[in-house]
């Protein structure tokens, strides 16, 4: 193939392979992007404060949940799904962000299957997107698939609770999971290192799949910028790959991330205003790597691995769900069959084996309650009948007495005349 000479004055308007990264960058920059993040964990771990600190704005106000009194301890709270939407803009690139909160998780005394509402939400988003892809017109699709789930762990210093282990197992099969130690400033550095080691051991023993940044040179980009990649030489590319791999190793070694959240700024010893939490003994700076891993987690979410989170959701989790759903409805191929295989109907919760035990228990409880109410109604009916007989008897006695008195009055009147 012969090359076509291009003058210097027309280089800004060339169309060819060398200009493909620039064209792709313009297309992506024009359409923008979207990112969905879910925060999950028990109440009181600072999830809302962390979200506001991450985006440096008040996306959601902290709500004080009333403590359950003795009269309401028996009532079972349900896990809610709260979606917060925002638009981030940097250098004319707009990123539509969806933050999903799960208030009410882990607040019950009996947290059996407390994760079910979260798992159902993750599956529903995959199912909704798959159904939109099967429609005749797919120009506009509503996508709320969760790209990453931040699971907040209570800083007990002992290890993961059974609820944490089971919930993380369920979530890891459906979305990118990143464990986070909340309020890490309540632990000393030695306690925090021991706590991290115990969590890593449990995650490995339980075979919980968490998201880890790629460190393979073949799958890592040089700088993340298509325009910069198109104009850099081999030495700079190798340097950028080495730096990116080292950064990825640091992120992996820091997992689970120990974070501290704050919405207030204070002046440190150097006279610089920083975001921190103030204590009588000093400040805990949020963006200081010596105090917590907030900067590393923010870099993973919004700087270096944002595209990895989105692509892994699309290529791994969504495709796995789609294959499982469509694999269960395979039909025998025929020569004249050109209609796409329909998606199986959504199963009701009552037909789910997970709910069979609870369903039978509820049916038994309902039957017993109905029998008890019927017995009480029969007793009330008998009491009413007995009371009516007693009143009729008393009424008859009174009528007899009145009749006797009338006869006496009549006799007295006859004697008088």
Structural summary, described in words:
- The structure is a single chain.
- This protein is an alpha/beta fold.
- The chain has 2 domains: 17-63 and 77-212 and 255-328 and 340-346, P-loop containing nucleotide triphosphate hydrolases (Rossmann fold, 3-Layer(aba) Sandwich); 355-416.
- The protein has helices spanning 20-31, 47-55, 116-133, 162-172, 189-205, 226-230, 234-254, 294-304, 306-327, 356-416; strands spanning 33-40, 82-90, 93-101, 148-153, 177-181, 257-258, 265-267, 273-279, 282-285.
- The strands form 2 sheets. A 6-stranded mixed beta sheet has the order 2-3-1-4-5-6, sandwiched between helices.
- Strand 2 (82-90) and strand 3 form a beta hairpin.
- Mean pLDDT is 79; it is low at 6-11, 66-75, 221-232 and 330-351.
């Amino acid at each position: 193939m012969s090359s076509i000479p291009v003058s210097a004055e027309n280089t800004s308007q060339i169309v060819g392979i060398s200009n493909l990264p620039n064209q792709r960058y313009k297309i992506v920059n024009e359409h923008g992007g979207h990112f969905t993040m879910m925060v999950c964990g028990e109440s009181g771990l600072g999830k809302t404060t962390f979200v506001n600190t991450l985006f440096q704005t008040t996306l959601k106000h902290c709500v004080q949940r009333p403590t359950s009194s003795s009269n309401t301890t028996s009532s079972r709270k349900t896990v809610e799904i709260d979606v917060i939407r925002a638009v981030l803009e940097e250098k004319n690139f707009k990123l539509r962000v969806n933050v999903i909160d799960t208030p009410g998780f882990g607040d019950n005394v009996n947290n059996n299957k407390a994760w079910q509402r979260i798992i159902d939400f993750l599956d529903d988003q995959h199912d909704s997107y798959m159904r939109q892809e099967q429609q005749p017109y797919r120009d506009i699709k509503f996508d709320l698939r969760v790209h990453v789930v931040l699971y907040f762990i209570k800083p007990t210093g002992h290890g993961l609770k059974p609820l944490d282990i089971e919930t993380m197992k369920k979530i890891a099969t459906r979305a990118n999971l990143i464990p986070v130690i909340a309020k890490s400033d309540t632990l000393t550095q030695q306690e925090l290192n021991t706590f991290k080691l115990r969590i890593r051991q449990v995650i490995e023993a339980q075979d919980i799949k968490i998201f880890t940044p790629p460190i393979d040179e073949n799958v890592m980009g040089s700088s993340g910028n298509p325009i910069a990649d198109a104009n850099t030489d081999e030495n700079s590319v190798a340097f950028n790959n080495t730096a990116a791999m080292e950064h990825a190793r640091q992120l992996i070694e820091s997992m689970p991330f120990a974070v501290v959240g704050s919405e207030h700024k204070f002046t440190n010893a150097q006279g610089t205003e920083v975001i921190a939490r103030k204590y009588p003994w000093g400040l805990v700076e949020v963006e200081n790597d010596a105090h917590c891993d907030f900067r590393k987690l923010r870099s993973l979410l919004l700087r270096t691995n944002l595209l990895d989170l989105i692509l892994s959701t699309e290529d791994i989790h969504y495709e796995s769900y789609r294959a499982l759903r469509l694999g269960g409805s395979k039909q025998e191929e025929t020569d004249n069959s050109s209609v796409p295989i329909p998606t199986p109907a959504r199963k009701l919760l009552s037909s789910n084996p997970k709910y069979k035990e609870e369903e039978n228990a509820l049916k038994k409880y309902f039957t017993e309650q109905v029998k008890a109410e019927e017995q009480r109604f029969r007793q009330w009916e008998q009491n009413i009948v007995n009371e009516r007989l007693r009143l009729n008897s008393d009424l008859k006695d009174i009528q007899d007495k009145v009749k006797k008195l009338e006869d006496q009055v009549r006799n007295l009147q006859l004697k008088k005349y």
